[in-house]
């Protein structure tokens, strides 16, 4: 008994030490700034004023409406792609898996400018299409993850009893896929409701969401109380979406456990070719804005030109940028590297901690793990603009005023990356067969050696993929960075935003060339990640 007590005490101490860094980071760089925004929203009657104003409800209605429309379109477009990835064995399907992921990891300013190349005047339609384009991969790869494990014999039995192919799909397959569809729809709605760069570029001053209004009130109008009140309204909606997403994700994980038999992909038959054609058509359509952006980057009123790329060594028309385009690109690479290193340390530690808590015999420890898992996911759904705004009103209280530190932008970007790292690493850690670990312990291996020789080799590919995925997300992060980056040290997305907000053909060409550069780097990293074959990228 004494030995067991010492072992449990030592284990509890180790878990507590492991939790210090992720919980401390989350408390100081997320909970505190968001709580400050909530408090500022309640102070001085800001919330009551915002709720009483018709403009707030118009903004909320437009935010929800465009997010709902984008989600519906993304689900409808993603289902045939999911069928293609899950059930079809044809040459080139592996390439489709990579191509469909590219839009999801593109920086939002790139997506916005890509659609502006097709719709120069912007508007509601391109906003909805751009948000749907951005999230087709979430639907396709989340649903495909469950569809791969569905036993097709149930649908075959329905067909044998006289049901048509479409009826068998509606009454057998579709209900079985409902948990994955619900999980994907909740995540897509969350992303669309907090979309910033896309709405800012395509909506301008005419079409605004809560996210862009918070930014405009803070930066242009200096209405901090009003912005805080709107942040509180948005936070309530985000928490509701997160709860719905967590419930749907749990149902999907349960469905996956109940359907452990993987179905082998096969060649399509009969009318299934129409579904394959639809899936390939969706993939082709998602590439159209990317091609349009590349064409725009070499187009001028006088014909084809590389002037925009040559202008990367300059500062734009009339010194729009305080630094050259190349300097902004180098700043982006350095900032993304710092953010990724920090996010990997915290994200992997948090994943190890969550797995350890789940394997603990005590109900209290497992419950703490569930709570911590949910808390670590909150930054994924809470507006990056709100978090950046929170930094401006809180971090001056820390020694040295962190608001002026060059580390502030990497810290904000790391906060965005950490939930993605956890979502990619945690499932792989959980899948490690506990019997292997127990056998190693029985043979005398210490816990550290068990992790080093069993867990690490089995999870290293997922960790590398998470690092690459986090890197491209940090590279294109725009919401919080637009608040925090100083004019003398902008990242490339912030520089692009500055260029398109100023008149001048050279600024326009330079912005599109910078977007093309950012996009090519992103595509190269994503292709390398997908070659690892972890199967986790884009699956939420």
Question: What does this protein look like?
Answer:
With 540 residues, this protein is mainly alpha-helical. It has two domains: 22-52 and 302-540, MetI-like (MetI-like fold, Orthogonal Bundle), CATH 1.10.3720.10; 69-297, MetI-like (MetI-like fold, Orthogonal Bundle). The protein is 78% helix and 1% strand. The chain has 22 helices and two strands. A two-stranded antiparallel sheet has the order 1-2. Helix 3 crosses helix 8 and helix 14 runs antiparallel to helix 15 (363-381). The model is unreliable at 1-8 and 534-538 (pLDDT under 50).
Kindly provide the name of the CATH class of the largest domain. Answer: Mainly Alpha
Task: Provide the structure class.
Answer: mainly alpha
Describe the largest sheet. Answer: 2 strands, antiparallel
CATH topology of the largest domain: MetI-like fold
CATH architecture label name of the largest domain? Orthogonal Bundle
Topology diagram in text:
Layout: H1 2-42, H2 46-52, H3 54-87, H4 93-105, H5 108-118, H6 124-147, H7 153-160, H8 165-193, H9 197-203, H10 210-219, H11 224-258, H12 272-297, E1 299-300, E2 303-304, H13 307-310, H14 325-359, H15 363-381, H16 384-394, H17 408-431, H18 434-442, H19 447-476, H20 479-484, H21 492-500, H22 505-531
Helix pairs in contact: 1-11, 1-14, 1-15, 1-16, 2-11, 3-6, 3-8, 3-12, 4-6, 4-12, 4-22, 5-6, 5-9, 5-12, 6-8, 6-9, 7-8, 8-11, 10-11, 12-22, 14-15, 14-17, 14-19, 15-17, 17-19, 18-19, 19-22, 21-22
In short:
By secondary structure, this protein is mainly α.
What structural keywords apply?
about 550 residues; MetI-like fold; 2 domains; disordered N terminus; transport; transmembrane helix
């Amino acid at each position: 008994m004494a030995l067991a007590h010492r072992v449990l005490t030592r284990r509890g101490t180790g878990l507590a030490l492991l939790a210090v860094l992720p919980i401390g980071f989350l408390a100081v760089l997320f909970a505190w700034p968001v709580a400050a925004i909530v408090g500022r929203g309640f102070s001085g009657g800001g919330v009551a004023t915002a709720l009483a104003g018709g403009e707030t409800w118009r903004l909320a209605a437009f935010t929800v409406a465009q997010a709902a429309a984008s989600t519906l379109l993304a689900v409808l477009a993603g289902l045939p792609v999911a069928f293609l990835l899950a059930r079809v064995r044809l040459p080139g399907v592996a390439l489709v898996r990579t191509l469909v992921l590219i839009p999801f990891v593109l920086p939002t300013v790139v997506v916005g400018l890509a659609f502006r190349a097709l719709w120069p005047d912007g508007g509601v339609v391109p906003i909805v299409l751009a948000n749907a384009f951005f999230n087709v991969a979430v639907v396709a790869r989340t649903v495909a993850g469950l569809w791969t494990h569905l036993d097709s014999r149930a649908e075959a039995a329905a067909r044998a009893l006289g049901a048509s192919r479409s009826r068998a799909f509606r009454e057998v397959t579709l209900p079985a896929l409902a948990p994955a569809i619900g999980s994907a729809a909740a995540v897509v709605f969350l992303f669309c409701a907090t979309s910033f760069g896309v709405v800012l570029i395509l909506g301008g001053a005419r079409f605004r969401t809560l996210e862009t209004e918070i930014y405009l009130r803070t930066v242009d109008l200096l209405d901090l109380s009003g912005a805080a009140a709107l942040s509180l309204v948005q936070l309530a909606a985000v928490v509701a979406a997160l709860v719905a997403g967590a419930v749907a994700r749990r149902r999907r994980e349960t469905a996956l456990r109940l359907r452990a038999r993987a179905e082998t992909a096969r060649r399509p038959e009969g009318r299934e070719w129409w579904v394959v054609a639809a899936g390939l058509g969706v993939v082709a359509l998602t590439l159209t804005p990317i091609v349009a952006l590349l064409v725009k980057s070499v187009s001028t009123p006088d014909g084809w030109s590389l002037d925009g790329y040559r202008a990367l060594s300059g500062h734009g028309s009339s010194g729009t940028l305080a630094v050259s385009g190349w300097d902004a690109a180098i700043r982006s690479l350095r900032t993304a590297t710092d953010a990724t290193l920090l996010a990997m340390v915290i994200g992997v530690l948090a994943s190890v901690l969550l797995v350890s808590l789940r394997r603990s015999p005590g109900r209290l420890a497992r419950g703490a793990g569930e709570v911590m898992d949910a808390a670590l996911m909150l930054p994924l759904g809470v507006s990056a603009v709100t978090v950046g705004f929170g930094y401006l009103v809180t971090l001056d209280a820390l020694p040295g005023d962190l608001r002026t530190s060059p580390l502030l932008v990497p810290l904000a970007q790391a906060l965005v990356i950490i939930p993605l790292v956890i979502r990619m690493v945690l499932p792989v850690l959980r899948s490690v067969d506990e019997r292997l670990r127990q056998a190693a312990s029985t043979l005398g291996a210490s816990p550290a050696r068990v992790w080093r020789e069993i867990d690490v080799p089995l999870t290293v590919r997922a960790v590398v993929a998470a690092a690459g995925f986090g890197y491209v997300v940090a590279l294109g992060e725009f919401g919080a960075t637009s608040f925090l980056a100083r004019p003398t040290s902008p990242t490339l997305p912030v520089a692009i935003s500055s260029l398109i907000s100023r008149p001048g053909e050279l600024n326009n060409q330079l912005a599109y060339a910078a977007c093309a550069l950012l996009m090519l780097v992103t595509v190269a990293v994503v292709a390398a990640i997908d070659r690892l074959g972890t199967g986790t990228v884009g699956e939420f």
